[in-house]
């Protein structure tokens, strides 16, 4: 059973940086695409960023492009989301998700991911 654990959330001020981590256990991490999504209670889950199993391809939502960077270290079974120039509208619960291989329906589609972490809260104060 694949398990994902996120860490790194917290309270920061506008313009600050934060790095989220997502560690996978129970599977061969290097075989999984990883995505980051965020969700506010009552709203749909929103795509943030994704990285292919190889690490060679990355994908970003327009709202975070140029500010967030997704990366992975297959030796550590961990993916990262470096978030810079944070804004109050980035406040959300952030979830990492994993898909074995290549998501056939696209990296942006949350339905393509079969394993999810518990989420980590990021709060950006103005």
> What shape does the CA trace take?
globular
Task: Tell me the Rg in angstroms.
Answer: 13 Å
What's the number of helices? 0
Distance between the termini: 40 Å
What portion of residues is helical? under 10%
Indicate the proportion of strand residues.
over 45%
- Topology pattern, helix = H, strand = E: EEEEEEEEEEE
> Largest sheet, described in full?
7 strands, mixed
Structural class: mainly beta
Rounded average pLDDT: 96
Low-confidence stretches: none
Question: Quick one: how many beta strands?
Answer: 11
Can you describe what's shown?
This protein is mainly beta and about 130 residues long. It has strands at about 5, 10-15, 20-25, 30-40, 45-50, 60, 70-75, 80-85, 90-100, 115, 120-125. The model has no long low-confidence stretch (mean pLDDT about 95).
What's the layout of helices and strands?
Layout lengths: L2 E5 L2 E4 L4 E8 L6 E8 L6 E6 L6 E3 L7 E6 L4 E6 L8 E9 L14 E2 L3 E6 L1
Parallel strand pairs: 2-11
Antiparallel strand pairs: 1-3, 3-8, 4-5, 4-9, 5-6, 7-8, 9-10, 9-11
Question: What keywords describe this structure?
Answer:
mainly beta; seven-stranded mixed sheet; 50% strand; 126 residues; single chain
Provide a compact summary of the structure:
With 126 residues, this protein is mainly β. Helix content is 0%, strand content 50%. The protein contains no helices and 11 strands.
